[in-house]
Amino acid sequence: MNWTEILAFARGPFFQAALLVFIAGMLYRLVRILLLGWKADKVPARGSKVGGVAVSLLKGMIIWPFIPWVKNTFSRNPVTYLAGGLFHLGLLVVIFLGTAHMLVWKSLLGFGWSTLPLPIVDWLAAGAIVAMIALFINRLVNPVLKLISGPAEWLNLLLVFLPMVTGYIMTHHLWLPYEELFSLHMIAVDVLLIWIPLSRISHFMFYFFSKAIHGADFGKRAVTP
Question: Which residue, 35, 61, 134, 169, has fewest beta-carbon neighbours within 10 Å?
Answer without folding.
Answer: 35
